[in-house]
């Protein structure tokens, strides 16, 4: 019975870090708030792997994971961005953009729960990646204007509900023997995060941004190839026969 509950502990840890991120953001500790979102991403990546390693997967765990994700990667990053970057925006615009992000995240999670994705891919940008980009992007508020941050949030919101394909790394398994070491990994990550919140958050921003941009680039490439194929078919159809 205890073994079956272990993956849910990771999921609840994810939710706890999301709540801590919200509290820290309200207290003005934005770097720590952003890093809590990043560590929550680690727990989110581990809960499914631990569940598969222990053969403890369940519908309950799946639903709990979605509820945790909407807090940690939907509400928390949107609030961080709102408090850090959006005070310069017109209030109505700031409210709409802030609300749009978790709403699209919720739609993304609901679709993931009821629809089968392409093998090896996620359909739409996963909400943990979108939340990670948003939370860490907010730390560049001195270098990036509020308008660009708002545009980035709208783009991330769109990518979550889009049909853009992103590589799925969650299927990479975790050996059963390695489960015992996962708490050590989490504790080490938290220690590093608390010790170097600002530097670590900005460093992690780069791979997250590249992941978000990768799917968009692939989608544009597919659209261009489809357009060329349609043009070639049209040209072939109307080409005079000899």
Automatic annotation (TrEMBL):
Its EC number is 2.7.8.8. The keyword Coiled coil does not apply. It holds the Pfam family CDP-OH_P_transf. GO terms for biological process: phospholipid biosynthetic process. It is found in: Endomembrane system. InterPro entries: CDP-alcohol_PTase-I, CDP-diaglyc--ser_O-PTrfase, CDP-OH_P_trans, CDP-OH_PTrfase_TM_dom, CDP_ALCOHOL_P_TRANSF_CS. The chain crosses the membrane at residues 30-46, 92-109, 121-139, 145-166, 178-197, 203-220. GO terms for molecular function: CDP-diacylglycerol-serine O-phosphatidyltransferase activity. The keyword Ion transport does not apply. It is an enzyme of class 2 (transferase). It catalyses: a CDP-1,2-diacyl-sn-glycerol + L-serine = a 1,2-diacyl-sn-glycero-3-phospho-L-serine + CMP + H(+). It is a multi-pass membrane protein. Keywords: Lipid biosynthesis, Lipid metabolism, Membrane, Phospholipid biosynthesis, Phospholipid metabolism, Transferase, Transmembrane, Transmembrane helix. GO terms for cellular component: endomembrane system; membrane. Belongs to the CDP-alcohol phosphatidyltransferase class-I family. PANTHER family: CDP-DIACYLGLYCEROL--GLYCEROL-3-PHOSPHATE 3-PHOSPHATIDYLTRANSFERASE-RELATED, CDP-DIACYLGLYCEROL--SERINE O-PHOSPHATIDYLTRANSFERASE. This is CDP-diacylglycerol--serine O-phosphatidyltransferase. The gene is pssA.
């Amino acid at each position: 019975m205890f073994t079956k509950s272990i993956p849910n502990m990771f999921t609840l840890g994810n939710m706890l870090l999301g709540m801590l991120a919200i509290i820290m953001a309200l207290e003005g500790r934005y770097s720590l708030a952003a890093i809590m979102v990043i560590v929550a991403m680690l727990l989110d990546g581990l809960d499914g792997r631990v569940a598969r390693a222990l053969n403890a997967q369940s519908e309950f765990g799946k639903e709990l994971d979605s509820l945790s994700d909407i807090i940690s990667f939907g509400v928390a990053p949107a609030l961080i961005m709102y408090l850090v970057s959006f005070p310069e925006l017109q209030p109505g615009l700031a409210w709409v953009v802030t609300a749009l992000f978790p709403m699209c995240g919720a739609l993304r999670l609901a679709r993931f729960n009821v629809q089968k994705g392409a093998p090896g891919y996620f359909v739409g940008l996963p909400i943990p990646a979108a939340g990670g980009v948003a939370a860490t992007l907010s730390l560049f508020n001195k270098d990036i204007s509020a308008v660009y941050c708002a545009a980035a949030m709208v783009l991330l919101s769109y990518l979550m509900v889009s049909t853009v394909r992103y590589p799925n790394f969650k299927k990479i398994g975790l050996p059963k023997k390695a489960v015992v070491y996962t708490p050590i990994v989490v504790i080490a990550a938290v220690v590093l995060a608390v010790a170097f919140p600002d530097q670590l958050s900005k460093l992690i921003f780069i791979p997250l941004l590249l992941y978000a941009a990768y799917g968009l680039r692939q989608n544009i490439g597919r659209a261009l190839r489809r357009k060329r194929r349609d043009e070639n078919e049209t040209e072939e159809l109307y080409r005079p026969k000899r």
